[in-house]
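Incident review: delayed structure delivery

Summary: a single-chain prediction request sat in the queue longer than the usual turnaround. Root cause was a stuck worker, restarted by the on-call engineer. No data loss occurred. The affected request and its eventual output are reproduced below so the record is complete for anyone auditing the incident later.

Affected input:
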Amino acid sequence: MPLSATQKEEVIKKFQTAKGDTGSPEVQIALLTRRIDRLTEHLKAHQHDVHSRRGLLSMIAKRRRLINFLSKLEKDRALEITKKIGLKD
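Output delivered after worker restart:
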């Protein structure tokens, strides 16, 4: 489920590292997290939607890869973003 332009702008402004930043790992992780949350709510109501569930799993895997990439570069930034978005590890 795509995010509206206003929701996307809101997330980008909250997590950007510099003005005009839209592609940093922090922004990408935050956008994926917002999409994952929305899709999770959808799947609670539509439990047999297998195609959306597959998309959800791929988004979760992509977010995990981005967090791993960021932790290899700078562990502190990775820990900070996981705390901000509310992930456990």
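Verification: The two ends are 25 Å apart (CA to CA).
Action items: add queue-age alerting; document worker restart procedure.
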